[in-house]
Design goal:
Strand content: 35-45%
CATH architecture of the domain at 15-242 and 276-281: 6 Propeller
Order of helices and strands: HEEEEEEEEEEEEEEEEEEEEEEEE
Number of helices: 1
Helix content: under 10%
Number of strands: 24
CATH topology of the domain at 15-242 and 276-281: Neuraminidase
CATH class of the domain at 15-242 and 276-281: Mainly Beta
Largest sheet: 5 strands, antiparallel
Mean pLDDT: 90
InterPro entries: Xaa-Pro_dipeptidyl-ppase/CocE (IPR050585)
Shape: globular
Length: 335
């Protein structure tokens, strides 16, 4: 290094140099049809580009002109999904949704066509995968108080604008279909509450009908029903379907986010009801959910029809529990 008087020497190591070297992995994307894995890699040296990479072949899904990021809720997260070899992702520069067919190596083709729209947290219908539900954040009116969030769906084989399913709350997150696509779960919350401030998020479910490639919520079978959570009082987060009619989530009614389960019952051919309960008979002084700083985070992974893996926090460390549908639980020993 060049010598210089005290206080004037310039180090060859800079913050930008360190940042360029810190390549990191973001979301892990699992194709539910064929179990193929992809992940999102953040590349600071490429102007912060987020690239979707295949695990099996190590190849990038798209070139340097694309960026799988979203600014929904400003903090972003959950910018992509993979279903049956089709990749859908939100491109940061224009906020639009693009499709890539992995089987033919196609370049990204634009699916949505509305300026000042942002999209995130995609979920494909399991029996009609061309129908995709996601969060839409409408910035047509630029003032922050005029930005509108909603849950919408669109058909990736048509050019029709996104269709609103649910609106009225300030924020939405985690739309998830059950295994046969007959039920949809999601979370929502409203100002002044925010997910990192305490108890705000609520879990809802609704029945779903698909007719002539259009998706409808079916209030006559199961109204838009709050499963758990209460504004500024009780938080319920991370809805994850256990199987066709059982929904896992974390709820802090005990003061800690512990595992809960809702069972949806089909009482008649046209009516559904549901029952919610704590999954553990004795609530643990552990949080089985992290604050929702951004979209797409999850502490829950379903192992099979009878058990799920939960990640909890204790003394600043992440620990794992296997929790069964009947309430049994065991900690996995970790170093």
């Amino acid at each position: 290094p060049t010598s210089a008087p005290y206080g004037t020497w310039r180090s060859p190591i800079s913050s930008s140099m360190i940042a360029r070297m810190s390549v990191s992995t973001e979301d892990v994307l699992v194709d539910p049809v064929n179990s193929k894995l992809h992940y999102i890699q953040k590349r600071p040296a490429k102007n912060g580009q987020n690239v979707i990479v295949g695990v099996a072949d190590g190849l990038d899904v798209f070139g340097r002109e694309w960026n799988a990021r979203t600014a929904v809720h400003e903090y972003g997260g959950a910018p992509a999904v993979v279903h049956n070899n089709i990749v859908l992702f939100s491109n940061l520069s224009d906020g639009q949704v693009y499709k890539v067919d992995l089987l033919n190596g196609s370049t990204p083709s634009r699916i949505t066509h509305k300026d000042k729209y942002r999209f995130a947290d995609f979920t494909c219908h399991p029996r009609a995968p061309n129908i995709v539900v996601c969060i839409l954040e409408d910035h047509t009116n630029a003032a922050p108080e005029d930005v509108v969030n909603s849950l919408v769906y669109f058909n990736i084989q048509s050019s029709v604008d996104p269709v609103t399913l649910i609106s009225g709350s300030d924020f939405y997150s985690t739309p998830r279909f059950n295994s046969d696509g007959s039920l949809l779960a999601w979370t929502e919350w409203a100002h002044p509450d925010m997910p990192w401030d305490g108890s705000v998020e609520q879990v809802f479910i609704a029945a779903v009908d698909i007719k002539e490639a259009n998706l409808h919520l079916a209030p006559f079978r199961l109204p838009r029903s709050r499963v758990a959570g209460r504004p500024s009082a009780i938080s319920a987060v991370q809805p994850t379907w256990f199987n066709g009619n059982k929904l896992l989530f974390a709820c802090d009614i005990s003061g800690y986010h512990n595992p809960w389960i809702t069972t949806v019952n089909e009482d008649t051919q046209t009516t559904h009801t549901f029952q919610s309960r704590a999954l553990l008979a004795d609530q643990l002084a552990l949080d089985f959910a992290d604050p929702s700083w951004w979209l797409g985070g999850s502490n829950i992974a379903v192992l099979d029809d009878s058990a799920a893996l939960f990640a909890a926090s204790r003394d600043g460390r992440t620990i794992f529990y296997v929790v069964s549908a009947n309430g049994g639980h065991s900690e996995i020993p970790c170093p």
